[in-house]
Amino acid sequence: MTATEDTTDRPAQRPTSGPGTTTQAMKDAVKRPTAFDRFADWVSEAMGRPLNIAFWFVLVVAWTLVFALGGHKLSSGTWLPAWFTSQGYNFPLNLITTVVATAANRAQNALTALLDKIDMQEAQIEATEANIVTLIKENTDLTSEIHTLTTEIRTLTMQVLTNATLIAETHQQVSALTAHAGLDASPPPDTSPPATTP
């Protein structure tokens, strides 16, 4: 019987860099979220609700219709306030996009870290399965050896019983012949029977 190494309690060796590795950003994604992280998650969830998407869809369609069907004055956009058409107005819109992207990055990093843990568990499961297969094969081999030895013991026991019967019959015949011939079958007076060990 050969001893097999138990690999169930030992963590699998993982590369420290490259695809499929847990980076510090991924580890940070699964830690306790900060106030900014919670705010980013809330904004991302709010922006992804069907009611919000429907609102912005209707607004874009209305906005497009105003410029398409509103005539030359409306399509020129000169009626819009200056703050609305300025580059500075893009800042709050870009800020919301950045916050949503932050939440998406955290979610992606958390998912990647989870997938890495699943990969490690799959590797441990495969090692355990291989160990179980090896142990089952060893157990099957031992069972086969025990069966073979049991068969040999039965055969030897039957031979011993047969030989004991033959010895008993031979002893009876020798005793009968000795008595018939008038010979003394008792041992000489100076010999003692062999000592038996308890």
What does this structure look like?
By secondary structure, the protein is mainly alpha-helical. It has a domain at 24-136. 71% of the residues lie in helices and 0% in strands. It contains six helices and no strands. The protein has helices at 24-29, 35-47, 50-69, 71-76, 82-85, 90-181. α2 crosses α6 (90-181). The longest helix has 92 residues, at 90-181. The radius of gyration is 46 Å and the shape is rod-shaped.
Short description:
This protein is mainly alpha-helical. It has helices spanning 24-29, 35-47, 50-69, 71-76, 82-85, 90-181.
Write the layout of secondary structure elements.
Elements: H1 24-29, H2 35-47, H3 50-69, H4 71-76, H5 82-85, H6 90-181
Helix pairs in contact: 2-6
Short key terms for the protein model shown above:
mainly alpha; 198 residues; rod-shaped; single chain; 6 helices
